[in-house]
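Please predict the structure of the following assembly.
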Amino acid sequence: QVQVVVSGGRVVKPGRSLTLSCRTFGFSFANYAMHWVRQVPGKGLDWLGVLSYDGSGEYYTDSVKGRFTISRDNALDTTYLLMNRLTFEDTAFYYCARDVAFAEITLPRDWGQGTLVTVSS
Amino acid sequence: QSALTQPPSVSAAPGQRVTISCSGSDFNIESNDIFWYQQVPGTAPKLLVFDNNKRPSGTPERFFGSKSGTSATLAISGLQTGDEADYYCGTWNDRLRIVVFGGGTKLTVL
């Protein structure tokens, strides 16, 4: 059974950095792209970026390009989201998700439970 | 502003059929597959439909996705109170090379 477990969310001051982790179980992690999506409570889904199965392709939405970086460790079945220069507007629940397709980039399929990042002084 | 446009809310009675629309443009919906997600408040989104009209295991046949040109539709028949949730469409944007979601539609089962 596929499981996606996100961790690392906490309260952080503006301007600081934070890394979220996303550990996966129950599928061949090395064969799937991984997405990160966030959601401000009460608002819609905000796609952040995706990293291909082998790390050769990565795409980000403009609002986080240059500040956020997705990485992965296929030996640990884990993906990471490094967030730099955090602002109040980055306060949200953060989700990671496995892609639908094998060895391609499409859209998210299996989502983790989300972790809350609160940027506050 | 979302690149895909959905109605903010829809409602219908139990047992009825409801449709949720999703409109975009030639460089997102028309040239790429549409995905639909269901999110019950307080939980993570769940994939309902992928590749326009395919259902992953676990999605009841009551949920039906379709696409025509720059618009897509999610139809839900035989509405149940458990279907109350927020529904999002999503697709790939060829020009920006990003995933785009609609703003979400809140379904109320009266």
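The first strand of chain B starts at residue 9 and ends at 12. The interface with chain A takes residues 2, 33, 35, 37, 39, 43-47, 50-51, 56, 88, 90-92, 96-104 of chain B (CB under 8 Å).
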